[in-house]
Amino acid sequence: xxxxxxxxxxxxxxxxxxxxxxxxxxxxxxxxxxxxxxxxxxxxxxxxxxxxxxxxxxxxxxxxxxxxxxxxxxxxxxxxxxxxxxxxxxxxxxxxxxxxxxxxxxxxxxxxxxxxxxxxxxxxxxxxxxxxxxxxxxxxxxxxxxxxxxxxxxxxxxxxxxxxxxxxxxxxxxxxxxxxxxxxxxxxxxxxxxxxxxxxxxxxxxxxxxxxxxxxxxxxxxxxxxxxxxxxxxxxxxxxxxxxxxxxxxxxxxxxxxxxxxxxxxxxxxxxxxxxxxxxxxxxxxxxxxxxxxxxxxxxxxxxxxxxxxxxxxxxxxxxxxxxxxxxxxxxxxxxxxxxxxxxxxxxxxxxxxxxxxxxxxxxxxxxxxxxxxxxxxxxxxxxxxxxxxxxxxxxxxxxxxxxxxxxxxxxxxxxxxx
Length: 419
Fold this sequence. Notes:
With 419 residues, this protein is an alpha/beta fold.
């Protein structure tokens, strides 16, 4: 899938350099588009002839909708359930029959009222409501970004919004949230299966955690969502029970379709998905996507680069500027900046990065395909000021990048010394 952008031929833009700014957001400070605008202003101050094109990117977490909108998708507003059940104004991005859904914007930590965490009861239902709205509108391919979740419910809320029925031992509807899964007695997937007929779901996922265990959803991410050690154990046990019943329901359905009946092997169906890499993503939404949505999990940044037509937009570029709030070891493991650098490096285009702070030495940056990193803290050591007033600092970094990497500067030596 490619965006409509077509880079101008060099003959039409004169001798000026072409720079592509493909940065992720600076979390809590700037959107990816704001980063690009500030860098562009700095570059153009030094080299007015330069063509600077913005390509906002994301890795599947917050900012995914904004990146899709920048690529030409329409934003479709929807009112859906937030992680604690309150209604939130959110939406999905659509182009033709393709929809982009961002879990973080509806079931994420940023949607917790007053920031109050609810580790045992937070739900992914709203994400399922967005998918349902997209399917109802005629979308047949859903790209689901699952970073930044507030819940550890194994994706149970999501699949219930799509038609799955979850009952306790008394035949009553199960309560929302991960802790309630320990009381789950039966699962009915009939309506879910019907709803998803003819729909392809692709999940942008950058973690390889299994659903349960020491590196599972509860143990790894539960504390970030407010779970204490006892609650982590409670959630892990509930997720294991959820996986067992899902495996049984899937096995029974498949054996019934084959006319063999549900035997002792029914529960084993899906056992591999219980430990599958990525099953623990987003509090177990990865597991539900694999086991119940028939989804394909892929690296978030690679999916997003394809979504915005990034490879096409590299045509004729002389330099790529990528970035994110902090360059650190996590950057090297599937984050947006590393993905952009890999894609540009594959076609021989040099890459530099802008960031709030840089914790990677020169060798580690080189391993990621990044020639140099320019940090706000290089100019202003007060991190609080960098967060509060980043745009003037980013403009200055844009000037430095132009001086260091784009020839034919129009700045005087005195001006260069200032920046």
